Amino acid sequence: xxxxxxxxxxxxxxxxxxxxxxxxxxxxxxxxxxxxxxxxxxxxxxxxxxxxxxxxxxxxxxxxxxxxxxxxxx
Amino acid sequence: xxxxxxxxxxxxxxxxxxxxxxxxxxxxxxxxxxxxxxxxxxxxxxxxxxxxxxxxxxxxxxxxxxxxxxxxxxxxxxxxxxxxxxxxxxxxxxxxxxxxxxxxxxxxxxxxxxxxxxxxxxxxxxxxxxxxxxxxxxxxxxxxxxxxxxxxxxxxxxxxxxxxxxxxxxxxxxxxxxxxxxxxxxxxxxxxxxxxxxxxxxxxxxxxxxxxxxxxxxxxxxxxxxxxxxxxxxxxxxxxxxxxxxxxxxxxxxxxxxxxxxxxxxxxxxxxxxxxxxxxxxxxxxxxxxxxxxxxxxxxxxxxxxxxxxxxxxxxxxxxxxxxxxxxxxxxxxxxxxxxxxxxxxxxxxxxxxxxxxxxxxxxxxxxxx
Lengths: 74, 370
Prior knowledge:
Distance between the termini of chain A: 18 Å
Number of domains of chain B: 2
CATH architecture of the largest domain in chain B: 3-Layer(aba) Sandwich
Number of domains of chain A: 1
Number of helices of chain A: 1
Largest interface: A-B, 29 and 45 residues
Strand content of chain A: 35-45%
Oligomer: heterodimer
Helix content of chain A: 10-25%
Radius of gyration of chain B: 21 Å
Shape of chain B: globular
Strand order of the largest sheet of chain B: 2-1-7-8-9
Structural class of chain A: alpha+beta
Radius of gyration of chain A: 12 Å
Number of strands of chain B: 11
Number of strands of chain A: 5
Number of helices of chain B: 16
Shape of chain A: globular
Largest sheet of chain B: 5 strands, parallel
CATH class of chain A: Mainly Beta
Largest sheet of chain A: 5 strands, antiparallel
CATH superfamily of the largest domain in chain B: HypD, alpha/beta domain 2
């Protein structure tokens, strides 16, 4: 249940960001993080960004996730 | 990508080789995160470990530790005229109390919905807020379960409701915090644990400092782990190293996401909205100060107070050993119901319901030997 996903911020409107990963886009609340900008990566859980990631960190995690989905297609 | 794969595979092989070279006393590590439970079962991680390094699963799935009484409470509210229940999907099939002599399937939110109750699955409390705004004639109750990862989202939703003065939203809170459970497990007489694989996303919020008391009071090595099998191997490698050095500490093996101090803003919002309370964990009993309750300033948003209902004493499923599974005292296959009357299709115990439950993971990946 604590599953959380790194997603890229593509737009910000007040306290809500549009975030995207692997072609899926959702809205995420920014109530729990400071100083998020478009282009940043954030970890998203239950509709809220819970941490800002550096681009390097996000790239590594996303690569892992992508590889997981390739090797386990369920 | 290929480079990363080869590199990751190489790192995993090297870690496994070092773990297999370990010649110290046999050790048992416990993970306390449903996502770790799934990753270990799915990847066959345990098959890579040497006999003297064992990984068991503890109470890491918030749905699985939610007691029968909470489901009964949610069902009673669902059957109350004018109330719409909103919930994370994981809770839908968790059984509530059923009479001991009953042969029928136990009551669940999923069955209640089929019987006509208004129960909606949402991804986020934000979705529940939007529903409340769109349906002013309905009272929306959000089922607030989760660990520290989820509590900030619950707090943010409560603050938004208070701020917008939404009159038709309330929350039935059963959120829990991990450290109290870890301390209880560290002192359990029937389960000897030599190290803890600490949950990655809980740690994003609470930071490595949250485990300092477990190390200090019980001398238990701790390693915060990410969710890739190689990251779990790295954390176990770290735990073995701490045991060999005789110097337990909190190691952060998920530094990309977990920072010193965790997420201070999230923790501040949780502290503003919630206060600690004693709470019951399925299988572990009541653990002091391990639950969250709305502070008096937000008491008007407490669904339990807004809609008082009479609840009979909860009845645990007969023969169900979820409690022993959650403590790591038995393997799921040692429960008499496992795979017979309790299956993912027709679960009796909570550990078989959630895909992150130890029994469900064990059932789905049954070739896993330990």
